[in-house]
Design goal:
Blueprint (H helix, E strand, L loop, with lengths): L8 H4 L8 E2 L5 E5 L2 E5 L4 H4 L3 H6 L6 H9 L3 H9 L10 H10 L5 H15 L12 H5 L3 H6 L5 H13 L5 H6 L2 H8 L7 H11 L10 H10 L12 H14 L18
Helix pairs in contact: 4-5, 5-15, 6-10, 6-13, 12-13
This protein binds a DNA duplex through helix 7, helix 10, helix 13 and helix 14.
DNA sequence: GCCCAGGGTGTTT
DNA sequence: AAACACCATGGG
């Protein structure tokens, strides 16, 4: 199935990344790592034909087959998967993913987007008209107060420690890629502020370990309400993709959990 | 003012 | 092992 501009938001606005914005004309503008792009109906096919963006959107993988195999596992999962059939797990930069999800804790998606935007504007590298995500070296030389001034709050110390570990080699993503999932997860969790959820986000979104299953407050509610008695392992080697279908579906159907729409919790973009 | 947000850490039962 | 306080910040 070809990628379409109309459904690009299923991947770019489903909670796995924080730097994309849908413009009034339906195009998408944003960045990943050091790369900037604006996708329009006119340039989308050419932009995704090869190189960086083809890999970013994981276009070499057969999501139709994976989705159908997940649909066969559970009827509720099938409903969530068919709600966003064009959703794909992006190949994000591991440092950007780890840093972003350190900032995500006890925070809402709207604020996370704003915070990361300020972080990029303040400390990203100028790539001609926009700023990249700050490389770990750029944050490693800051003080905690610098990051608190942006609104990071208590997460400032976590980001600073992670930046220093990555830039001096104590945390090596190249190594983590080659280790078994459980071992890579344990190593990630040695960094301050990285618990099970943030580690799973780094593994799924940053290292593309598709069996990793991040469980946040939404997923806890969803598992209890929609999949009673089921565990992440029951979703198989593509549990991470199943998780993303369910997270996205849950955010678009907050009434399923008999709560008022939480502050900033809705899927509205901004 | 109160509750919530893609949590984690440290302490107390 | 589970419950709890605490950690900043801003939107509803």
């Amino acid at each position: 199935m070809p990628v379409r501009l109309e459904t690009l938001g299923q991947s770019l606005d489903c909670g796995q990344c924080f730097r994309w914005k849908k413009l009034p004309d339906g195009s998408w503008e944003g960045a990943a790592g050091p790369h900037f792009a604006r996708f329009t109906a006119k340039n989308l096919d050419r932009a995704l034909a090869g190189g960086f963006w083809r890999n970013y959107f994981d276009l070499g993988r057969d999501y139709d087959a994976i989705r159908e195999s997940l649909c066969a596992l559970d009827p509720v999962l099938a409903r969530a998967a068919r709600y966003a059939p064009d959703l794909r797990i992006l190949n994000q930069d591991p440092w950007e993913a780890l840093c972003s999800f350190l900032l995500s804790q006890c925070n809402n998606i709207g604020r996370i987007k704003g915070l990361i935007g300020r972080l990029c504007r303040a400390y990203g590298e100028d790539r001609g008209g926009f700023r990249s995500f700050p490389p770990p070296e750029a944050l490693a030389r800051l003080s905690e107060a610098d990051l608190r001034a942006l609104g990071c709050g208590y997460r400032a110390a976590y980001v600073l420690d992670a930046a220093r570990r990555v830039s001096d080699g104590r945390l090596d993503f190249g190594l983590l890629r080659r280790l078994p999932l459980a071992e890579a997860r344990r190593i990630l969790m040695r960094t301050a502020g990285v618990g099970p959820k943030v580690a799973d986000c780094a593994l799924l979104y940053g290292l593309h370990r598709l069996e990793a299953f991040p469980t946040d407050v939404w997923m806890k509610r969803a598992m209890k309400t929609l999949f009673p008695g089921k565990k992440p392992e029951d979703f198989g080697p593509y549990a991470g993709i199943a998780q993303q279908y369910v997270f996205h579906y849950s955010r678009h159907h907050p009434g399923l959990f008999r709560r008022g729409t939480p502050a900033g919790g809705g899927p509205k973009s901004g």
